[in-house]
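Regression check, 2'-deoxycytidine-5'-monophosphate case 200:
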Amino acid sequence: ASGKGTIARALARHFRLPHMDTGLLYRAVALKLWRWGGDPGSEFEALRACDDLGVEPDDPELRSGPVSEIASRISVYPPIRAALLKRQQDFARQDGGAVLDGRDIGTVIAPQAEVKLFVTAAPEIRAQRRLEEILSRGMRAHYEEVLADIRARDRRDSSRDVAPLKPAPDAILLDTSDLTVDQAIAKALSLVEQRLAVSR
Ligand code: DC
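Current build output:
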């Protein structure tokens, strides 16, 4: 709900590049584990869920609360991150380039990327956006709970030892807290264009 997915898709469209939402990979592992009734506390069981991983990006369950929680939990296991690494790097290195969004793209997956954008927003704003998204899909949720979930995930994603959520030293920071979707996209485009003008 920082807007990174929306911004990444808009950038991909603008530059006519393929796009990968890498969070979906972690979510797909989580969903598989959840359907199996596997234990997210078991690195071994989570790793088995990485085998022959198919991703159905339109499956609404990928974005459900329990799957989000499991995805965050299993993403701390180094073997899981290693199992998903090649797929992401192959995508990033394809001829002509690509846009990837995810927490460790600039730091781990593609440290040589031409442009890195680190998109953030205040937790309260992300909670409000997430709440509206959930309500608009006809599901129920409470602001306080959504905010608590976001805070818990932030803590886990930022404090884990492997690939913690942090900007690469050469990333451009974009805080979308006070921006509408259109403003955030316009800002991202202009930041990327500026960086490309310098790097080329
Ligand atoms: O971006 P998202 O909410 O769809 O990601 C779901 C979870 O996957 C998130 O809690 C942490 C993990 N993830 C990750 O560790 N590294 C990535 N590049 C993308 C997602």
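Comparison notes: Residues 75 and 81 are 7 Å apart (CA to CA). The chain is about 55% helix and 5% strand. No diff flagged against the previous build.
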